[in-house]
Amino acid sequence: MQAFVLVQTEVGKALLIAELIRQLPGVLTAEDVLGPYDVVVRVEAADGTELPGVVKQIQRVSGITRTLTCQVAAH
């Protein structure tokens, strides 16, 4: 199961936070971007019960102000 996590950060911290998030288990990619969100993260978990734990790890990174998780639809 995969999801995108859209992350808003404190001003000027997007690059650092993206680098920190890349090191977390379950994270496939983390890119700093322009727009209403500062970092876009793609995560993977074995199933729906593990996905919240992966997202909570991201939310604990210092400097994050808000996240929005978008689960990838199964095909």
TrEMBL record:
Pfam families the record matches: AsnC_trans_reg (PF01037)
Transcription regulator AsnC/Lrp ligand binding domain boundaries: 5-70
Signal peptide: none
Transmembrane segments: none
Top-level taxon: Bacteria
Name used for this protein in its record: Lrp/AsnC ligand binding domain-containing protein
UniProt organism field: Rhodococcus daqingensis
